[in-house]
Write a structure and sequence with these properties.
alpha+beta; Tetrahydropterin Synthase, Chain A; 3 domains
Length: 264
Amino acid sequence: MALLDIPTLITYLFWIVPIVVIVLILLSCIRIVREYERAVIFRLGRMIGAKGPGIFFKLPIADNFRTVDLRVVTVDVPQQLVITKDNVSIEVDAVVYYRVFDPVLAITAVENFVYATNMLGQTMLRDILGSEDLDSILTRREELNKRLQEVLDVATDPWGIKVTSVALKAVTLPELMQRAIAKQAEAERERRSRIIISEGELQASKAMAEAAKLYQDNPAALALRQLQTLTEIAREKNLIVVTPSPATSPIGEVLALSRGKPAT
């Protein structure tokens, strides 16, 4: 095979190089975004809209784009020091779930929507919990979660962000407050137990009063009840029971009901 002379080689390069450059430029113009992403395109500095999902073409040098994820994002709000309405210092952390519903607003309306949402969540958490007392925070967490979600959703709506849920993770109390709450709970349990015992004694006294009236009207039933009581007592070992018996003497008789001893 004969070597190409210099003029022929230059001719080939004259055609091949532009073709390669054009192919590379065309390949650089092709962009692909996933199903859960959108590309916000700026042409010469002007926003022309969002593209995707799938393939779109970007003009070299003239176009610039930013990709926005439309999936639900989880933001872990760090622990915040909150002073409640009744002047109790607590530490609270939470989780915020949000998604971008308008990628154009998320890029053009706020510089960094992720950072802005995180900071807003921290601020709203301190403000809303600071307007509640400690008992409300501990007992009305679902209501406070709903309230936080609504406030954040309204505040982030101009940014093209939808806050789907807010959840308080943990409420950390000072050690002295934990002891006070434990004493309060113990006192409440003691109060309930005393009330239950009192109600039981009241019911028992009413039943005994009714039984006494029945025994008064029927002496034979009282005697049977005494025998039944003696039978139950006799189950104990080495037990002597002294019972009055008007049939023999006013003093009564002694019954040996212990195991292995005959009655006298």
